[in-house]
Design goal:
With about 240 residues, the protein is mainly beta. The protein has four helices and 19 strands. Strands 2, 4, 5, 7, 12, 13, 14 and 16 form an eight-stranded antiparallel β-sheet that branches. It has a seven-stranded antiparallel β-sheet with strand order 3-6-15-8-9-10-11. Strands 1-19 form a two-stranded antiparallel sheet. A hairpin with a 2-residue loop joins strand 13 and strand 14. The longest helix is centred in the N-terminal third of the chain and has 17 residues.
């Protein structure tokens, strides 16, 4: 567990002692970004290819090219995580396809014929593994989870409309992953590859798109999350025995 997670745990435990509480709320949010503060968001993301900009309190990819990717930085991701739910809102600005939602990403990503920039340092050390949910792929005729090194699946006929917001969710566990679009399950794939480890990211392919309200949380699920208001607080409860 990285230092920032330990610091948060220590802070909340100290708060509980000071308040005389026997039950406190421990945040189970592993990562979140609503892009309201560009200076903070710049610390959280590493763009590997494409023209990524923090604009209008969203994250925009504005280059009509293939394989445009941005992943969470080392400072904001714990590589021990292998059971999480990842949610993001996506909106296609223009182009031939839809969204590429990255998860279970380890090591250097496939370049697919373009010169990728530097990855986060921890990823540079890892074995290569890559997953992305290709929504509106193959010239926007179908959707599927693709993988380099793992198991693909969750095929569907979903296409992506221009200038429409979509709610995208991926539930990742050590044994499988489930993909959900606008509240409806699209598919579940049994896959124990690398015990489900790997960070999340955003990508596009021959498409300009914008993203908002990224959140990654633990198995207890989000509680008190206000998606429309662009605020998100996820809580799980843990009991402390106070002397």
């Amino acid at each position: 567990m990285k230092a920032r997670f330990k610091h948060n745990l220590f802070f909340l435990a100290t708060l509980a002692v000071a308040s005389g509480l026997t039950t406190i709320a421990i945040a189970q949010t592993y990562f979140e970004d609503n892009f309201d503060n560009p200076n903070e968001s710049k610390k959280k993301w590493v763009d590997i290819y494409g023209q990524w900009e923090f604009k209008d309190k969203e994250y925009h990819q504005l280059q009509n090219a293939v394989n445009c990717m941005s992943v969470v930085s080392d400072e904001y991701w714990d590589d021990d995580l292998n059971e999480y739910t990842y949610e993001v809102r996506g909106n296609k600005i223009s182009g031939a396809e839809g969204f590429l939602i990255m998860f279970r990403c380890l090591g250097k990503m496939q370049d697919r014929g373009v010169a990728l920039r530097k990855h986060p340092p921890e990823m540079e050390k890892q074995p290569a593994l890559e997953y992305w949910w290709n929504l509106g792929g193959w010239a926007n005729v179908r959707s599927q989870v693709e993988s380099w090194g793992g198991r693909a699946g969750a095929n569907s006929t979903h296409t992506i409309e221009t200038d429409k917001w979509y709610n995208i969710k991926i539930i990742n566990t050590p044994k499988d992953y489930t993909v959900i679009l606008d509240g409806k399950e699209v598919g579940k794939v049994d896959d124990p590859t690398q015990d489900g480890h790997g960070r999340i990211g955003l990508a596009t392919w021959s498409t300009l798109a914008r993203y908002d309200n990224v959140i990654v949380y633990g198995p207890e699920g989000p509680k008190g999350v206000d998606r429309k208001g662009k605020t998100s607080t996820t809580w799980a409860h843990i009991k402390f025995k106070l002397k």
